[in-house]
Amino acid sequence: MMRKNLLATVLFGLAWALVGIGFQALHFRYLPHGVELVGQAFGLFLAGVASSLLLITFLGGMRNPLGRQMVVAGYVLFSPLGLLLALLASSSLEGPDMPGMAFALEAPLLIAVAATIAMAVGLGLTGGLAVFAHSVAARVRR
Fold first, then answer.
1. Number of other CB atoms surrounding residue 55 within 10 Å
2. Pairwise CA distance, residues 15 & 9, whole Å
3. Helix/strand/coil (H, E, C) string of 79-98?
4. Hey, what's the torsion of the CAs at 39, 45, 48, 49, to 10 degrees?
5. Which pTM does this prediction carry?
6. Is 40 helix (H, G, I), strand (E, B) or coil?
7. Are the CB atoms for 70 and 136 separated by under 8 Å?
8. In the chain, where the domains are located
9. Tens digits of per-residue pLDDT, 68-95?
10. Nearest to 118 by CA among 88, 90, 81, 91
11. Distance between CA atoms of 46 and 119, rounded to whole angstroms?
12. Among 54, 58, 70, 33, which Cα is nearest to 118's?
């Protein structure tokens, strides 16, 4: 089970990096180069790893199928928001006065924090709704 979780975490990280950079290139018609590209890709990878760890944690806390479905739905609904926040957070650092190495060090942290906050809020909201729905259903059955 631990191996599956580790593999899923790495795959989610790679997927976030590829989707984020691809979305930025196709939609905004902008592809960073050099150190900026590495910084953004690494930040998106960290955001994907953090979001998958949140997903695994929330799924492990749910005891019924409805709760798991709500958490997965929350992940699917809030991951685009987390991805956009991550891309916007990294673009706020860009500028002529920002040296490349400083961007490469600050961008991954800012990207990961922005995306993780969005994902935590989304998974917390849907996980809380799932727990609430389960408790109401249990009371109705009594």
1. 20
2. 10
3. HHHHHHHHHHHHHCCCCCCC
4. -120
5. 0.80
6. helix
7. no
8. 2-141
9. 888 888 888 888 888 888 888 776 666 5
10. 81
11. 13
12. 54
